[in-house]
Amino acid sequence: MTERLIIAGSGGQGIMLLGKVLAEAALLSNKFVTWLPAYGPEVRGGAAHCMVIISDDEIGSPYIDQADTLIIMNQLSLAKFINRRKDNGLMIINSSLAESGKLAKAITGKFTDIAIGLGNIKVANMAALGMYLAHKKIISLKNIEKAMRKMAPKDKPELLKVNLEALKKGMEI
Amino acid sequence: MDSEKRQKESRVKLLITGNEAIAESAIQAGCRFYAGYPITPQNELTAYMAHHMQDRGGVFIQAEAETAAINMVYGASAAGARAMTSSSSPGISLKQEGISYLAGAELPSVIVNIMRGGPGLGNIAPAQSDYFQATRSGGHGDYHCLVLAPSTVQECYDLTALAFELSDKYRVPAIILGDGMLGQMMEPIVVTKFRAPSLKQSNKPWALTGCKDRKANVVKSFYLKEGDLEKFNLKLQSKYQKIQREEERWEELFLNDVKIVLVAYGSMARIAKGAVKALREKGKKVGLIRPISLWPFPKKAFAKIRKQYLVIEMSYGQMLEDVQLAVNGQAGIEFLGRSGGGVPSEAEIIAKVNKIYHG
Amino acid sequence: MDKIYAHPKSLRDVSTHYCPGCGHGLAHRLITEVVDELGIREKVIGVAPVGCAVVAYEYWDFDCSEAAHGRALAVATGIKRVRPENIVFTYQGDGDLAAIGTNETIHAANRGENLSVFFINNAVYGMTGGQMAPTTLLNQKTSTTPDGRCAQLQGFPLKISEMLALLPGVKYIERVSLHSPQEIIKTKKAMKKALINQMEGIGFSLVEILSPCPTYWGLSPKPALDWIKNTMVKEFPLGVIK
Q1: Which of A17, A79, B25, B141 has a CA positioned 20 to 30 A from the CA of residue B17?
Q2: Residue C80: its chain B contacts at CB < 8 A?
Q3: Can you say how many angstroms the Cα of residue B13 is from the centroid of all Cα atoms in its chain?
Q4: What is the pLDDT of residue C4?
Q5: Which DSSP string do the residues of B291-314 spell out, in sequence order?
């Protein structure tokens, strides 16, 4: 099993963090994993994406040309990565910020709206992760939650709570 | 509890970037002085040192320039401490003055180059175009640095500690040569506790500590008297010959029954390895030599195999020259290289191999 | 009978390579006298420059490091941060400290490194053959200003001590001279103060020493001292700057 994911959006959307949670959970699942970031020259608001590979075998290149899964968080990223999906690849699109039209095998969720509904726009990434978990059974919910607990700042328990809620909402879509 | 079990239990698995793995390894290996200057794509390393050095008994300085950083390392090393600096290509060019002096004064030190595209300001994409600079004396004079090239985040961790060991052992500067991809990617690593000598325990009778109960020590690279510099240079050369004999390091894959041998190091070797495995699945007799020490270049790895070679680099053919020297006309050598942001992909490698295979 | 004069223990019993009338030998000796008097020979680490004083460690009998041209204060920073219990000083000329090493100088001072700096200002590059230094006076002839230093083309003499005095990290700066016995006594006192400051953890101290270079001033030793007294101190006034 090798799962290659590209997660793309804009700086500030928690793109890198989404990838890191997945990678940490993969580590907890005793998988081989790589996480490779890419930023634009802007620190906030620019394009951002990361590449995560989860595998049962040693991983060669951490760079992904054709992805098994694309998680797209805004319109610009959709345009940029639309051709980087394998033929049978999964595409998850944040329809709050991206108009996907009639794309084959694309599933959508209003992740940003969900996050706003939960009172924290920053947790849209976790809603997207939830939807991914519901559709691909590579990493267990248990290990994702464990990874989130491990990575969450200890002095802000409410932050972990709202992230977990977003994750659940994403799974329920 | 037997030692193996204890060792296992003291092991921790961490998910960190290559840059952070280098920094953590350095601290554990007893690095007590770090000076750096901001440059992408190695900033995580400097930041890690800023966060952790002081708490763990070391010194962190954000220097005013790369020249200052490397010369601070010179001072710290002269005072007997394990010392390190890190940068990326343009910054490493600035450090060359100091590296030449470190070599000339026989001061141990570790210099990390997380390579990016060049020449000039280039870009911040990963590259391997500083191979010549690292393996030939990058600054002035007849000298070498020991150069180690990690290929995984685990190796970033393992080879950094080794670089400190070897640098102390031979009193030569050691370079960790990585690239932006390896520096910024995260991978799980197994953390081992290294035994680091403290400043007081370290066996460096030449170090500057104040001349209590001994003759005064001088750390220098200046030999003005006729014949002295030549004598010193010959001493350096015999040291380099010993390093060449004893410190060649490489990894081999599928060399027993092979028709084409791929040669790649660092991040490039990961991609080449992927290609080798894919080609083997298709029944193609392809193997890999991955140099781990770039200087000394692992010539021994090439001595016994007279097959077709394919050298792959994120440059336009720098390590290629070392392979040519090692093979010495006894086998064919093909080359595949991109640089300036382009990275030869698995598909490109496979296509090239197929072309050679059937051509 | 009391012994009132002796060869300093910190000064090796060898002859130096300096030209007749050069100030370096005197400055070297003053440093060793002060080191002996403070009883710190076994704790001192000197950093020698590139320039005429490049082999100062052949004359000083205590631990020393060479530094690349201009980098003495970066090297000293590395040593002192690793071994704060040692007493670390740099000895640098005007080209080393105020031209090629200006960056290292300003930033070591600005970090307030607890170091002592002995800065020899002789308004010329000696070792390389008498070229213009950052401190060369206007109209002063050197091998690279054959018609004299011209402000429009080569700028003005750089007053690095006054510049450094602006920095909060700097605790003590004094400009002294070697042109007369009285001034030499003051020089020794200033050197001592710079080292005591470090021993007491007070911080960055610099002594600028106006020093004769008869060879490249085209003068014999006595007129060279007079030139400091009558001309050089007008551009570089003596006294405590900070």
Answers
A1: A79
A2: 75
A3: 23
A4: 78
A5: ESEEES--THHHHS--SEEEEEES
Residues of chain B with CATH 3.40.50.970: 9-191
CB contact under 8 A, A23 and B186: yes
What is the rounded distance in angstroms from the CA atom of residue B29 to the CA atom of residue B163?
9
Which residue from C108, C105, C87, C100 is spatially nearest to B61, judged by alpha carbons?
C108
Task: Tell me which residue of C57, C170, C177, C52 sits closest to C116, measured CA to CA.
Answer: C170
What chain B residue is nearest to A26 in terms of C-alpha separation? B188
B54-66: b (≥16 Cβ within 10 Å) or e: eeeebbbbebbbb
Task: Identify the bridge partners of residue A69 per DSSP, sorted by sequence position.
Answer: A5, A90
Sign of the dihedral through C-alpha C104, C108, C114, C119: positive
Fold of A2-172: Pyruvate-ferredoxin Oxidoreductase; domain 3 (3.40.920)
DSSP calls for A39-97? E-S-SSSSEEEEEEEEESS----S--SSEEEEEE-SHHHHHHHGGGEEEEEEEEEETTT
B131 vs chain C: nearest CA distance in angstroms? 25
Which tokens go with B245? Answer: 């004999």
Q: Are B146 and B163 in contact (CB under 8 A)?
A: yes
For residue B319, count CB atoms less than 10 angstroms from its CB and return exposed for 0-12, middle for 13-18, buried for 19 or more. buried
| The pLDDT of residue B9 is above 90 | no
Q: What is the pLDDT of residues B127-183, one digit of tens each?
A: 999 999 999 999 999 999 999 999 999 999 999 999 999 999 999 999 999 999 999
As a whole number, the mean pLDDT across chain C is 97
When computed from its CA atoms, the radius of gyration of chain C, rounded to whole angstroms, is 17
Write the residue in B65, B97, B216 that is nearest to C62 by C-beta. B216
pTM for the whole thing? 0.95
Percent of chain A scoring above 90 in pLDDT: 86
The answer as to CATH 3.40.50.720 being correct for domain B251-358 is: no
Predicted pLDDT of residue B349: 97
Structural domain including C184 reads 24-240
Per-residue pLDDT at B7 exceeds 70: no
C7 found inside a domain: no
Q: How far is it, in rounded angstroms, from Cα B71 to Cα B95?
A: 8
Give the per-residue pLDDT at B42.
95
Q: Report yes or no for ipTM above 0.90.
A: yes
* b/e code B173-196 from CB counts within 10 Å (16+ = b): bbbbbbbbbbbbbbbbbebeebeb
* Best mutation target, A61, A63, A66, A139, to test chain B (most B CBs within 10 A): A61
* C33 part of a folded domain: yes
Question: Distance between CA A74 and CA A10 in Å, rounded?
Answer: 7
- Written as six digits, the tokens of B347 are 């598909």
CB contacts < 8 A, B to C, total 137
pLDDT at A40 over 90: no
Which one-letter amino acid corresponds to residue C79? I
d(CA B175, CA B37): 17
Distance between CA C41 and CA B212 in Å, rounded? 8
Residues 6 or more apart from C45 whose CB is under 8 A from it?
B79, B208, B210, C62, C63, C64, C65, C79, C83, C86, C87, C88, C89
Touch between C and A (at least 3 CB pairs under 8 Å): no
Q: Give the highest mean pLDDT range of A8-12, A41-45, B342-346, C97-101.
A: C97-101
Written out in words, the top-level CATH class of the domain with range B9-191 is alpha beta
Quick one: C165 exposed, middle or buried, by C-beta within 10 A (0-12, 13-18, 19+)?
middle
On whether the CB atoms of residues C135 and C94 are closer than 8 A, the answer is yes
Distance CA B213, CA C211 (A): 35
Q: How many domains does chain C have?
A: 1
User: How far is it, in rounded angstroms, from Cα A38 to Cα A50?
Assistant: 6
Q: Do A60 and B275 touch (CB under 8 A)?
A: yes
Measure in Å the smallest separation between the Cα of A61 and chain B Cα atoms: 5
